[in-house]
Design a protein that fits this description.
This protein is mainly alpha-helical. It is built from 15 helices and two strands. A two-stranded antiparallel ribbon has the order 1-2. The chain crosses the membrane at residues 28-47, 95-117, 129-147, 167-186, 252-277, 297-317.
Length: 338
Amino acid sequence: MKILHVIFFALAVGFVYASNFIFDEYHLSIVNNIAIFIILAVSYNLINGVTGQFSLEPNGFVALGAYVTALMLLSPDAKISQFDIEDPAGVILAFYLPNFILALICAGIASTILALILSYPVFRVRGDYLAIVTLGFGFIIQIIAINFPAFTNGSLGLNEVPKHSNIYYTGGVAIIAVVAILNIIYSKFGRAMKAVRDDEDAALAMGIDTFKIKTLAFCTSAFFEGVGGGLLVCLLGSVSPDQFTFFFTFQLLIIIVLGGLGSTTGAVIGTILVMGGSEWLRFLDEPMSLFGYTTPALPGLRMVVFSLILILVMLFAREGIMGKRELTELKFKKRTKK
């Protein structure tokens, strides 16, 4: 088992290193995007799949991480020139740290602190009520970003953010996130998280501090979502409230359900299929030549076909592609001669 983990780790590192040489700029941007969404998917899967808490909060933490990173990397002069609705607050002008790695760490810490504060009211409820509470939190973050222009430049967002995110940063953090999440899952905390998922009352009766375990999963998930938000804004070069609607959370939910709730491997596979597949099918939106006849452009056909593929996959794989298993836990039956 450990040898397989080492092999997969080595292959991932080799792929990240070679990507700069084997992909052109367009395909490299797709790989960068996939790597960032792997970070977000595996961290979201920790709270939603492994711990079994139906949370709909990722867009809020990703938005916070994106704004913290952008505000830290933009110089005071750049902020003054961009803030058109209202002059930037003094604390925003002083909020300047041009080191990219430190900015990412600060983004993760900011999201973690917010998650820790939210855990007290959020985990007073369960099930559908938990989903509603966390969904409301995502909307609140978006509304704050729009209605406090002295801190976020409102609906105009922030532009000209330094594009520091390359494949070494995005791929490296993705590998770190997967390794960290897997280590948590295989630890005593991971076993406690699975116990909470399977039967929270039974876990509580067995002496597990369920609030502590859920908070740990929530804060760990928030940290990587904040870092992922920072990488995303430094890949795109801009950030605005429109990027972090509920659709963003819904997209991550599709990924982890398709891959298999509770499986980190499934979250990685689901990300590659959803993010890579949607780009691969982009040709369906453009004019096509079929049997000598040129069809007109059909914007949106790509998503129709992609949605049908998702429906078919879920019909034949009810628990997702991997279920709750990891790749190293698969057992293949040997054929025996009769």
